[in-house]
Amino acid sequence: MFIDRDDAAIRLADRLKAFKGKNPLILAIPRGAVPMAKIIAAKLDGEFDVVLVRKLRAPYQPELAIGSIDEAGWTYLAPFAASSGADEDYIESEKRAQMETIRKRRAQYTPIRPPIDPGGRIVIVVDDGLATGATMISALHGLRTRNPARLVCAVPVAPPDTLAKVASMADEVVCLEAPEYFQAVGQFYQHFRQIEDDEVIAALKPS
Predict the structure, then answer these.
(1) The whole model's pTM is what?
(2) Reduced to 3 DSSP states, what percent helix, strand and coil does the chain have, rounded to the nearest 5?
(3) Nearest in space to 91 (alpha carbons), one of 71, 52, 65, 72
């Protein structure tokens, strides 16, 4: 469906072109969306930054998100979290671990400046795709509390039920493809390489 993240970003930017010239703030959910958001920001003449959220991992299944947490500590828990074996003690421990990762990433990614203020801005939150939507939900919730003028979720691909969940959190959702058969985001890319921290740090350095 997409050659790689660059291809997806170019196609997303075309769908978002109505925001060009309006100084949008393009926020990437690290790490996969960072190169995408940088491309979109350049094409829309906007600013680029990261929004830090982390998924809460299921016990014994670290790839499965049972929820997510944002930089302020707000937590989203999926309805199936308890049935995954995550009791209250486990969830509290996982929240602490992910908050520590968020703090370390903020220190790594933007050590000489605070996050760009989204207040009063058109804010476009980008990810390379949604599966459960947990991290996007936390990102949108946290940003909403900071009073953006407009809050947009922009992704190349997501299942229809996930799009329905995130729709209530944003003023607008832009999604290029919403296939019924969905196992993982990577299945919709010919090339879906790992993005490393040093690439994120380089992308966020002032030019």
Answers:
(1) 0.92
(2) 40, 25, 40
(3) 65
